[in-house]
Amino acid sequence: MSAVTKLGAIVLDCPDPVALAGFYARLLDLPEPKVDDDGSWVVLEDPSGVRISFQRVESYRAPKWPGQDVPQQLHLDLDVTDLEAAHEHAVSLGAELLDDAKRFRVYADPAGHPFCLCAC
């Protein structure tokens, strides 16, 4: 029998883990993040146990969506029941709208990572 592997966390590189974790905590209405002593590693956890972690990278370069000059390594799809309300909330927290499709919208978080708000 082999060991069971499960997802531990999704990790985002960024220049300021505390600030970016705060953005996602407010966007997703999650409890305050857990911050390591030096602030270089921060963890958000939702009630179901899903974790998003943020790590400081000194020479961080934000991805440029949709181009590949500085490619995205991943993006988050966030399901929402009210796309307009979710849009207003995300923008008020500092997200930048990159593309407006019919059933989803693409944004950049404050560190430049793309994420989508998806109507469900």
Automatic annotation (TrEMBL):
Glyoxalase-like domain location: 10-118
Pfam families: Glyoxalase_6 (PF18029)
Source species, domain of life: Bacteria
Listed SUPFAM superfamilies: Glyoxalase/Bleomycin resistance protein/Dihydroxybiphenyl dioxygenase
Protein name in UniProt: VOC family protein
Organism: Amycolatopsis thermalba
